[in-house]
Specification:
This protein is α/β, with parallel strands linked by helices. It is built from 10 helices and 10 strands. A 5-stranded parallel beta sheet has the order 2-1-3-4-5. The protein has a 5-stranded parallel beta sheet with strand order 7-6-8-9-10.
Length: 331
């Protein structure tokens, strides 16, 4: 399904809670690839499946889109805390879902076959933070109090992961809801021996900074780089001295710098450099690049043997091989 004699039909999924500029960052890259790619020897025809309403209605919306025009795969896409209906749809229809940009990856991701994800999202950030707090933090005379502040489902999920992981330690963890009407209440009662963890968006962090321009009371402050990238927030020096970002991304040195420069050049060539969310653009570019490379590898195999129908399962196998090859080369 989705493979026509003269075109390869693809879709990308946008959930309704995504910011328009974030969706634009992903769609700009995908449309540029679709305009120039010739994976499997065919041009790509990209459909945008923009979901609306509550998540309980998404399966029906996806099925309607698919009936109108079957696609070979779901390429990239973007969501926040809810993606499970999309995951279930792809599994049910045996439809490859290739590397969407998500904040929370479905729990069943490790057990199913047709969806490939970049990472567990904020859950992995929570695990990284928990490991740091257990291994690196020196506990004062009385246990540290860890105040976690969140504003939505993604942040709540991460905060609960940290709280559960630290339940057997001697550190007290408190989870609070950030409210726009009373931002100061989220950090009430903090002392210099405490730790503050912000699972917040850039505008919400800006509100806290405006409330406490002299700097946070807590001795250490951790910010989710997935929910608020360092490029998206501006911190005064009094905050910078205490803020650390919890990030999934490592510095690959020269190799990483070369990749960044290549992406910048490609974005400029396709008039996409004005969008400042490089992480989302890089995600969409990586998904498209690997997808196109996998199709090319399949086509290369066909040269050495009789042509076989393009298979979704074969695509997933080639994608897995390419990702493993990349991971081996980068260590």
């Amino acid at each position: 399904p989705g493979v026509a004699p003269d075109v390869l039909h693809l879709a990308t999924v946008i959930t309704p809670d995504v910011r328009p500029d974030h969706a634009e960052a992903v769609l700009g890259v995908l449309h540029a690839w679709a305009d120039s790619a010739r994976g499997a020897g065919k041009p790509w025809h990209l459909q945008v499946w923009q979901l609306t309403g509550p998540a309980t209605t998404w399966m029906a919306q996806l099925e309607k889109h698919y009936r109108q025009q079957p696609v070979f795969a779901v390429l990239s896409g973007i969501g926040r805390s809810e993606w499970e209906p999309v995951h279930n749809f792809c599994e049910q229809y045996r439809l490859p879902c290739v590397l969407p940009s998500l904040e929370v990856t479905p729990d069943k991701a490790n057990h199913d076959w047709y969806s490939m994800y970049f990472s567990p999202g904020v859950n992995l950030e929570a695990q990284i933070l928990t490991h740091y707090l257990k291994e690196e933090t020196t506990v004062p005379d009385k246990p540290n109090k860890i105040i976690q502040v969140h504003s939505g489902a993604s942040g709540r999920y991460a905060a609960e992961t940290v709280q559960s992981s630290l339940s057997s330690s001697n550190m007290t963890t408190i989870v609070r809801k950030f409210r726009v009407t009373s931002p100061r209440a989220a950090v009430k009662g903090l002392t210099a021996n405490d730790i503050m963890v912000l699972w917040l968006r850039p505008d919400e962090i800006a509100q806290l900074v405006a409330e406490q321009p002299e700097g946070p009371v807590a001795g250490k402050v951790f910010v989710s780089a997935l929910l608020s990238t360092p490029e998206e927030i501006s911190l005064p020096e009094t905050w910078k001295q205490r803020v650390n970002f919890v990030s999934l991304f490592d510095d690959l040195g020269l190799q990483g710098e070369i990749a960044r420069l290549r992406l910048e050049r490609w974005l400029e060539q396709n008039s996409l450099a004005e969008n400042t969310n490089r992480r989302l653009q890089a995600d969409a570019y990586a998904a498209s690049y690997l997808f196109n490379d996998a199709l090319g590898a399949i086509r290369g195999q066909e040269i050495r043997r009789p042509t076989v129908p393009l298979s979704r399962e074969h695509l997933l196998e080639m994608l897995e091989n390419l990702v493993n090859k990349y991971n081996d080369s980068t260590g």
